[in-house]
Write a structure and sequence with these properties.
single chain, 262 residues, alpha/beta, TIM Barrel, 6-stranded parallel beta sheet, two-stranded parallel ribbon, 8 helices, binds zinc ion
Length: 262
Amino acid sequence: MRLAALTFHDVLPDGHQPSPHGDDFYAVRATEMEQLLSHLRKRHYRTVNSKAFRAWQQGQGALPERTVVFTFDDGYTSHLEYAASLLIRYRFTGTFFVNPEMIGRPGYLTWEQLRKLVFLGMEVGSHGLTHRPLTQLTREELDHELVQSKRRLEEQLGIPVHAIAAPGGFWNGTVAEAAKRAGYDAMWISTIGMNGKETNPLALRRVVVRSPLDVDRIASLVEGQPSALWWASSQQVAIRLLKRTLGVYWYERLKRRLVPEA
Ligand SMILES: [Zn+2]
């Protein structure tokens, strides 16, 4: 059995104003997210969070055939305003990856709002301390990002933090080693694919969804249909080439114009 994991970023209401942090490239609209959840619910999908996924990977318990993992990156206020309530309405759950340094900034969740997410049954994990690409850091900086983000989340929320999502999907073996050293047992990245029991828990695959969201295509992906995975991979190859050619700095500034519509 293999599971897909989806990555959401900002979730916008219809007719939204641009978000204060000014990066809605990866955003989806709340109505699109609801269409996807409704579709998956009708197909009898269930969700697990990162922790339950890892328990399954380690042989603790079985999962229903149709199971998917929902992850949310960056800690936007919309995750409490829209995402969490939609998940609850459709009896789904999610894992929310946040950067302690961004908490409380305009457009981002506050600690109080994060505690509410936890109270609502959502899992919270680290997304690094500052959202810097982890592959660009020295060993000391890398350890600092991973250790301090985990510690601050655990102190502020009073929960253990076992999972991390690599900011921007920037990942390599050094980053995985550092995550292990810092005490994480799951690292989610942005490589397209499904996750089985044999998948490296420090390189778990995810598919980023963004607007305009094609519900049928995403549903095919969740079902692991090869053509849907191929399509998503080809998009990712284009993005990876751009990142490599332009470097992180220019990619982040130009992606809006260069990456084809999903
Ligand atoms: Zn991010």
